[in-house]
């Protein structure tokens, strides 16, 4: 398996977030940063050039190999604010039904703007994802 290109680095999370041109996306990113920092209890760190990650844990692939990854994170992409949640979404269907306007990928939650969603529900999804990552061998940084 090729080595992951998305790795933790020493780039400034604050500078990265301040550089977001879209005012709504920047504001929403700051809110998500605060929520994730509060839930994880760790300071954010840049992973690659555009992902803000919190904590660290091992991810295991079907072939048994492991890589280090963040517990939970987000990226203010052009199309949507992308949240990386480790616990998947099918097991949280009741929460997903209450969340509001969103889309999902395997472990990604796509939100156009926080005004479209129910923040307490988002907080609970993040809490569950962090708990799932912790059970998978997470450690703080």
Structure notes:
The chain is α+β, with helices and mostly antiparallel strands. The protein has a single domain (13-135), classed as Aspartate Aminotransferase, domain 1 (Alpha-Beta Complex). The chain has 4 helices and 8 strands, in the order H-H-E-E-E-E-E-E-H-E-E-H. It has a 6-stranded antiparallel sheet. A two-stranded antiparallel sheet has the order 3-4. The chain is globular and about 40 Å long. The relative contact order is 0.18.
Q: Give the CATH level 1 class.
A: Alpha Beta
Widest sheet, order of strands: 1-2-5-6-8-7
Portion of residues in beta strands equals 15-25%
Low-confidence runs of at least 5 consecutive residues: none
Number of strands: 8
CATH architecture: Alpha-Beta Complex
Q: What is the makeup of the main sheet?
A: 6 strands, antiparallel
Write the layout of secondary structure elements.
Elements: H1 13-18, H2 23-40, E1 44-47, E2 51-54, E3 57-60, E4 66-69, E5 72-76, E6 81-84, H3 93-99, E7 103-104, E8 108-111, H4 119-135
Helix pairs in contact: 2-4, 3-4
What keyword list fits this structure?
alpha+beta, Aspartate Aminotransferase, domain 1, 6-stranded antiparallel sheet, 4 helices, 8 strands, globular
Could you give a short description of this structure?
The protein has 4 helices and 8 strands. By secondary structure, the protein is of the alpha+beta class. It has a single domain (13-135), classed as Alpha-Beta Complex (Aspartate Aminotransferase, domain 1), CATH 3.90.1150.200.
